Amino acid sequence: MAKTRTRGLRRTYSRVVSGASGRVLVVDDNKVIRQLIKVNLELEGFEVVTANDGAECLDIVHDVCPDLITLDVVMPRLDGFAAAARLRADPRTRHLPLAIVSACTQYEVEAGIEAGVDAFLAKPFEPAELVRVVHRLIERKDRRERKGAPAGRGRG
Fold first, then answer.
1. What is the pLDDT of residues 43-52, one digit of tens each?
2. For residue 149, what pLDDT is reported?
3. What pTM did the predictor assign?
4. What are 128-144's pLDDT values in tens digits?
5. Hey, how many other C-beta atoms are within 10 angstroms of the C-beta on 32?
6. Would you place residue 103 in the very low, low, confident or very high pLDDT band (cuts 50, 70, 90)?
7. CA distances (Å), origin 10, targets 72, 73, 81, 82
8. Judging by beta carbons within 10 Å of its beta carbon (0-12, 13-18, 19+), is residue 82 exposed, middle or buried?
9. Beta bridge partners of 71
10. Which residues contact 123 (CB under 8 A, 6 or more apart)?
């Protein structure tokens, strides 16, 4: 029997963090994982916005203007690979750093690379590793923007 949702999807936004290190859009259908990622990044000074799946990510990405997006792979409506491919196809989001946070099987890594993902973090993950990956990708994006080159599409 398939799981059914009894409540509608809600957009969830974090508090605004003054002096934030950057804004991260966290996309995962698991509320506990979203909250875990959100709390760990906020503790490091990031502003965090969350989305329940890839479709919601695409709905809000232009309003949120994140510096980086983390994506789960298996999600309802639109999975992480399809969301990554659509983000890469859109000139406004083409250069955003994308990190997959999932089981990271060989198939997921290969499909993620094909979709233009920049980094992979295997679940279960260490919070410190999550923070390192996010910092590294945002710093790389910032360096490229200062040099006038687009961010994203690197492997990290």
1. 999 999 999 9
2. 56
3. 0.81
4. 999 999 999 999 988 88
5. 8
6. confident
7. 18, 20, 22, 21
8. middle
9. 27, 100
10. 33, 101, 102, 103, 104
Tokens 């099987």 -> residue: 105
Give the integer Cα–Cα distance in Å for 74 and 45: 28
CB 154 within 8 A of CB 118: yes
Residue carrying the six token digits 């945002």: 138
**Contacts (Cβ under 8 Å, ≥6 apart) of 101:** 28, 33, 37, 70, 71, 72, 121, 123, 125, 130
Question: Edge-to-edge, what's the strand order for the sheet holding 98-102?
Answer: 12-13, 47-51, 23-27, 68-71, 98-102, 119-122
